[in-house]
Design goal:
Layout lengths: L14 H4 L2 H12 L24 H6 L12 H5 L9 E6 L5 E4 H7 L3 E8 L4 E11 H8 L7 E6 L19 E5 H5 L4 E6 L2 E2 L9 E3 L12 E7 L6 H5 L23 E4 L9 E2 L7 H4 L13
Parallel strand pairs: 1-10, 4-11
Antiparallel strand pairs: 1-2, 3-4, 4-7, 5-6, 5-10, 7-8, 7-9, 11-12
The structure holds ligand MTE.
Ligand MTE binds next to loops.
């Protein structure tokens, strides 16, 4: 794949519309507190963004997997409006120098928010291209101070069945949990998304804070995160707990390693219409140059 460096979605959109309200507010709050921050979040060069055409806001926010709101693709968009996302805090604990409960506004005031147009590939063999706004996870981890000896990062989604109607069904042992190896978590492609198309992240997409790991199947990209834990042991992950033979810890996009029940060689890009041709799935979802070195010497079929 190629990465464009010249034109970004933000270049063709008025900046005021592009920056999301929460991020602007967070920047202003940081300044008021005397922090050395730019007045608006810096807009980084698009070196990690794809030049493929993004899916529409409507497509990205109406075809979702977010089982806390139901198992149908339209359930999250129909039900997620009940979720309260402000105030929001994130517990950061385990092997960190500065554990604690961090208010999201305080976090955002310290983060460099940028736009990343990423390919997104679900394990169910559909894909999208998504213009996220967010910050690199490594910034958050550095803020908390990762201790030597930490090897993994574990993530947890909110549990609030009164607002998350799907949590009244027990087929998942809530909370939804996910994890990354520390080097994967520190990789500059690994994003904590807070926005979409310059707007606040829609609730069905994981507001107010969700992980995006573009070279892994979408289920690794855990939504509505309330806890981040540094640990020295590989953390349990929801889909691996549910179906260990079908979903591994790594879940790197790999067209040569099929799911036990379907091929992963091709994918259906959402929005192409009923008769659109399937497209080839790319190794590491097209991010091979950036991330292959993380897995040197590893058997990717055994570590699926
Ligand atoms: N996170 C939580 N908490 N609950 C979920 O059900 N679904 C995952 C992932 N993150 C899920 C989740 C799956 S299977 C996918 S494909 C992506 O979210 C979908 O993200 P999207 O709806 O923004 O496209």
């Amino acid at each position: 794949m190629s990465f464009k460096s010249d034109l970004k979605y933000s270049d063709i959109t008025p900046k005021a519309a592009w920056l999301n309200r929460r991020q602007l507010f967070a920047g202003a709050a940081g300044l008021a507190a005397g922090a050395a921050l730019p007045a608006v979040p810096a807009l980084a060069a698009g070196r990690y963004s794809t030049d493929e055409t993004p899916n529409t806001f409507e497509e990205i926010s109406s075809y979702n997997n977010f089982y806390e709101f139901g198992t149908g693709k339209g359930d999250p968009a129909a039900n997620a409006h009940r979720l309260t996302v402000d105030p929001w805090s994130v517990q950061i604990d385990g092997m960190v120098d500065r554990p604690g409960s961090y208010d999201l506004g305080d976090i955002l005031a310290k983060m460099n928010i940028e736009e990343r147009i990423y390919r997104f590939r679900c394990v169910e063999a559909w894909s999208m291209v998504v213009p996220w706004n967010g910050f690199e996870l490594n910034q958050l981890l550095n803020m908390a101070g990762v201790q030597s000896g930490a090897k993994y990062v574990a993530f947890e989604t909110l549990v609030r069945p009164e607002e998350m109607v799907g949590q009244n069904s027990r087929f998942i042992d809530w909370p939804y949990v996910e994890g990354l190896r520390l080097d994967e978590a520190m990789h500059p492609l690994t994003l904590m998304a807070t926005g979409l198309y310059g707007e606040d992240l829609p609730k069905q997409n994981g507001a107010p804070l969700r992980l995006v790991v573009p070279w892994k199947y979408g289920f690794k990209s855990i939504k509505s995160i309330v806890r981040v834990t540094l640990t020295d042991t590989q953390p349990p992950t929801t889909w691996n707990i549910l179906q260990p033979r079908e979903y591994g810890f790594y879940s790197n996009v790999n067209p040569t390693v099929d799911h036990p029940r379907w091929s992963q060689a091709t994918e259906r890009k959402i929005g192409g219409g009923l008769f659109a041709k399937r497209q080839d799935t790319l190794m590491f979802n097209g991010y091979e140059d950036e991330v292959a070195s993380l897995y040197t010497g590893m058997d990717l079929a055994a570590n699926f």
